[in-house]
Design a protein that fits this description.
Distance between the termini: 96 Å
Strand content: 35-45%
Shape: elongated
Radius of gyration: 33 Å
Number of strands: 32
Structural class: alpha/beta
Length: 478
């Protein structure tokens, strides 16, 4: 009996040792599992953080590009244990049916060392867009905004750039032959009458609506110089010469427009780094190149005698935004345009580019000379491009209006009219500046066609677990 008890005690001891060993083994296994799970979760967190950092890098680069800011491609801290950097790898444009699809490639890197995992991830962003300057002619409505009459295309209208309207395009309904040298599109896909005699050299067809904004928000945000006037009869005058902008303010005094300082050449500033200026209120603008400015002197509208200032024409790339109507008071020319005031077909021959963006109307002055030449991409986002005083039944007919650039207007404006009295320009000669496809004015209005495409490496995960010391550089942005 005693011997049996001793054996039972020995068995229980062995069982206790076995159970203890099993408990320790389970504990070690659970601890190993917990550590492995923790490491896996930490790795996944670091991996996802580095991925999000790369997207932040590319979007940061895009924002810097739009705003005209510069970056040196060094690592920038986002938050604890996370960094990002970017560089621009390519920029260019491809012809498409309705313009040029501009593309910008941004190369982004994100880095996370969460819980000791030093992971670097890579991604590229392809950003494509088109601008209003991709077209010779854009309208939202083909009707006169005052009388609401349909405006027709007819001989001798010849448009050598791409044309689009959100409205129906009307051709004069008798045997008439306007010519469109590039593709013509309509959101309504309507060309009236159906059997018209217009010549469409590259065809016609539908296209999505191009939205006209109410404000030139981007220009306001990036403007390197701002000024303006508030009164109904006040205006800011700008004269462009070389890479300088000459300016003064004008207002009504004793029934006449008076300008200060007396001479337009007395104060100026260089084109700002962003290439954009913005005027709050009405604007006069000119660059007569080689002849004295008409609107010089203390009372420019009254005397209409040539002043003392002579512009050399714009030398550089500039966009002028205006919160109110913009009035072109004389020739508006590039310094390097041809002797006949036309624009060369290559940017190497003439690097000068001008954009005019009015949140209201763009007008050719009622005091214009018989022939006016304009080198510019123009956009009237709420109004029209027309002639000052076109609705006043007062005889004021001019001979010729030559434009090398582009025209975008919410409502198609009248340029010549013969009811009651002849007003405006008898001859209109519009030529598209093909350089604008690849070289639009700085921060010029974009159409709604914008696409973002993130591209990760095709092979592998795109993750570099080696990292670096945070001092590397990924190129330069801006």
């Amino acid at each position: 009996m005693v011997e049996r008890k001793v054996n039972n005690k020995g068995s229980m001891l062995v069982m206790a040792v076995v159970l203890s060993f099993v408990t320790i083994l389970l504990g070690v296994t659970f601890l190993t599992f917990a550590i492995t799970l923790h490491n896996n979760i930490s790795y996944e967190i670091a991996s996802k953080q580095s991925l999000y950092d790369t997207h932040a890098a590319t979007m940061w680069g895009l924002a810097d590009k739009i705003a005209g800011r510069n970056s040196h491609g060094v690592w920038q801290r986002l938050y604890d244990n996370n960094w990002m950097r970017y560089s621009f790898s390519a920029e260019g444009g491809n012809d498409i049916d309705i313009g040029v699809l501009n593309q910008l490639e941004i190369y982004g890197q994100g880095r996370s060392d969460y819980e000791g995992f030093d992971l670097t991830r890579k991604v590229s962003l392809s950003f494509s867009w088109e601008t209003y300057a991709d077209y010779l002619y854009i309208t939202n409505s083909e009707r006169d905004p005052v009388n609401h009459d349909i405006i027709y295309f007819w001989t001798p209208d010849t448009l050598d750039g791409k044309v689009h309207s959100n409205d129906t395009i009307h051709i004069m309904d008798y045997d008439d032959h306007p010519r469109f040298k590039k593709r013509v599109t309509s959101t309504r896909n309507a060309f009236v009458p159906p059997g018209n005699h217009a010549r469409f050299d590259q065809g016609k067809g539908p296209r999505a609506r191009i939205v006209f904004p109410d404000q030139a928000t981007e220009l306001r945000n990036v403007a390197g110089w701002e000024s303006g006037t508030q009164g109904h009869d006040s205006v800011t005058q700008l004269v462009l010469s070389d890479d300088f902008i000459y300016y003064r303010k004008c207002g009504r005094l004793s029934g006449r427009i008076h300008c200060t300082p007396t001479d337009i050449g007395d104060q100026s500033f260089p084109i700002p780094p962003s290439g954009v200026i913005f005027v709050y209120g009405k604007t006069w603008v000119s660059a007569s190149r080689g002849r004295h400015e008409m609107m010089d002197g203390a009372y420019p509208e009254s005397s209409m005698t040539d002043g003392t200032f002579m512009s050399h024409g714009l030398d550089g790339q500039l966009t002028i935004g205006s919160a109110d109507s913009m009035i072109i008071t004389d020739n508006l020319l590039y310094k390097h345009s041809r002797d006949d005031n036309s624009v060369p077909g290559h940017i190497d021959s003439c690097a000068d580019v001008l954009g005019l963006v009015s949140e209201n109307y763009i007008l050719i002055t009622r005091l214009a000379r018989q022939t006016i030449f304009i080198n510019a991409a123009m956009a009237a986002v709420r109004g029209s491009i027309t002639v000052q005083g076109i609705y006043d039944d007062i005889e004021n007919e001019k001979q010729s209006l030559f434009i090398w650039g582009s025209l975008a207007q919410r409502n198609r404006g009248i340029v010549h009219i013969t009811s009651f009295a002849n007003r405006g320009f008898i001859e209109k000669d519009y030529h598209y500046d093909f350089r604008l496809m690849d070289n639009p004015p700085p921060h010029f209005l974009r159409t709604t066609r914008e696409e973002l495409q993130f591209i990760e490496p095709l092979f592998g995960t795109g993750i570099d677990a080696s990292g670096d010391n945070g001092n590397g550089s990924g190129g330069s942005g801006g």
